[in-house]
Specification:
single chain; mainly alpha; 0% strand; 300 residues; elongated; 66% helix
């Protein structure tokens, strides 16, 4: 956040003074914080820490925080802003402090609802286009923080992607097709094993269901990063761990209880389950090899 605020100061000082500069520093720091934090109150407060406490902007934003913490309604907070900056108080509609208070109004009272947040911002009037762009970018940036995977250390070293670059650029489309073929082949192999050695079509269906379902859980771990899963720690994402465990339990519920009858599944010999486990773990081995030899790498 300090770096974001410093860069904002350099930019704003070309054409602004005092609170005009502090306003840009506040917004830039909030954008930086939003990438790693989903708490909008903390985002507002963190941005304030990058501007002088003795400034009028800091005082106005502190007042908005106090009103929010005291449980004041959005309507009352909006009325407070309009009372301060009415026709009797000469000010420019692009004034930093009044518009910063409106941005704080939307972020604090918007309840993480994009429509409500924008509505609070727009209905106030003033600098509606800039306020909406500011608040929209901050709320959208919090989506990054909602990711369950920790940000990789070199994330800021990646060059921005060209705007003309497609989603399947740098071989990603080929990787998707090849990985899809891998899952298809593994599922077919499971079906053949189950049908041949289980002695029935239902045994083949059971093996195919087990392998197809559980390979997707394994692949969820593979796709955590383009780096080796074991280098980053296979179980460091605790939310993914719990989600994967719940998924495995649901698959087991279908495989080993009477629920499986509805899916025309049957119990298999133990060695077939072991063979299925080998097929299930195959994507892990394949993806680790692909990452090691550079077939899966960072796309800049």
């Amino acid at each position: 956040m300090e770096t974001a605020a410093e860069m904002a100061w350099r930019d704003a000082s070309i054409s602004h003074v005092k609170n005009g500069i502090y306003g840009e520093m506040w917004v830039s720091a909030m954008l930086a914080k939003a990438a790693v934090c989903g708490d909008l109150r903390e985002i507002v407060a963190s941005g304030m820490r990058q501007i002088p406490q003795e400034s009028r902007l800091h005082a106005a934003l502190s007042d908005m925080l106090r009103r929010f913490d005291a449980g004041e309604t959005a309507e009352a907070a909006a009325s407070h802003i309009l009372a301060l900056y009415d026709e009797a108080n000469q000010h420019h509609w692009c004034h930093t402090i009044s518009n910063a208070m409106i941005v704080a109004l939307g972020l604090l009272w918007g309840e993480k609802d994009f429509t409500r947040t924008m509505g609070l911002c727009l209905t106030m009037g003033f600098d509606t286009d800039c306020n909406s762009a500011t608040i929209g970018s901050i709320v959208a940036n919090t989506a990054i923080s909602l990711g369950m995977e920790a940000v990789e250390a070199d994330v800021m070293d990646h060059k921005p992607k060209p705007k003309s670059e497609g989603i399947f650029a740098h071989g990603l489309g080929i990787q998707v097709v090849l990985q899809g073929c891998m899952f298809a082949l593994l599922t077919l192999a499971a079906f053949v094993l189950g049908q041949r050695f289980g002695g029935s079509l239902e045994a083949g269906q059971t093996m195919a269901f087990m392998v197809l379902s559980l390979t997707q859980i394994v692949q969820a771990f593979n796709m955590r990063s383009q780096r080796s899963l074991f280098a980053m720690g296979p179980f460091t994402n605790h939310k993914l761990n719990w989600a994967a465990l719940a998924s495995v339990l649901l698959v087991c519920l279908v495989l080993f209880t009477p629920v499986g009858v509805a899916f025309e599944l049957v119990l298999l010999p133990g060695w077939l389950y072991a063979a299925g486990l080998g097929l299930i773990l195959a994507p892990l081995v394949v993806m680790e090899i692909a990452k090691a030899i550079g077939l899966v790498r960072h796309r800049h």
